[in-house]
């Protein structure tokens, strides 16, 4: 054990938090067990006491992000009522989960597919997107969304907007982790657009 | 010169294209001159004949993206008429430039700020975002955009949507590089939202 090593007081969860921070900072490919050991301040063998590999840390991290996202689709409210209302609920909850699990979702969104774990994460992400695209399609069929936008394309733009939150959202210490203002801005921009509707019958 | 080296038939521009492809594939940090030499099929000294450093290739690549984007703000139509019309024009042209210069803008959007060139690129990106945010602010002041969304936040969501195009847009060979459908979907989603407006006075 190196002289810099502290006593290992990590749980699997708290070690994962450190690893996710390093992965987001250096990129997963650019991170070695040595980097993780230095960031955690414990020896490499202490890390191996918790997890068998760097890839297992990645798997647990993206699983945490994916579990949060898929749970949104399985909430009771996501299965009831008109498709547009279910879609709005899913968009709202997705934005919230993204902020709640910010570093985990950030990592998930940067995964590129060089390892089995990364390929699995990409498959799961695509599955999530497809389930949301089905909701968009259903809402178009029910006449609640504009029919001229292709559902696949609309879903991509919707996620483009939601996922971009990881690029700039940094809650201040002491503030709630989830910003209601951000959630409302996403909902109103996505569903009603930025334009102020013309007031019909107003004076010229 | 290694035995794999071909005769150097590159121009500065065609070598840059190869380099941008490698940067996007491996990440800028993960790319060595050796990788560039292998991808181009010419020796490292041939590459040095064109450019003094890897960072200079990065600078030229992100400059190409930034020049395209800033040119949008300086087009005559971006300075005339109501702010909302100028904003719509800027959003449309930004989406077009993104598709026209897809690998260059992709690289620009992935830059993280580890070198002077990357920091410069981040400063320029922020400047671009601020100029668009000013247009959003002006359009709100003129009563053409909803006042309840914060201009800074609206701009971020707008760019989230536009910039996400680099993640999934891949023109098929033989098709136009710019997809009119994608541009129209961005404009209609951003300004009017996905929701079908209620028909006033319709039967219940």
Automatic annotation (TrEMBL), chains A, B:
Record protein name field: TetR/AcrR family transcriptional regulator
Keyword annotations from UniProtKB, A to Z: DNA-binding, Transcription, Transcription regulation
PROSITE patterns hit by this protein: HTH_TETR_2
DNA-binding region: 32-51
Stored PANTHER family: HTH-TYPE TRANSCRIPTIONAL REGULATOR BETI (PTHR30055:SF234), HTH-TYPE TRANSCRIPTIONAL REGULATOR RUTR (PTHR30055)
GO MF annotation terms: DNA-binding transcription factor activity; transcription cis-regulatory region binding
Boundaries of every HTH tetR-type domain copy: 9-69
Organism, as annotated: Streptomyces hainanensis
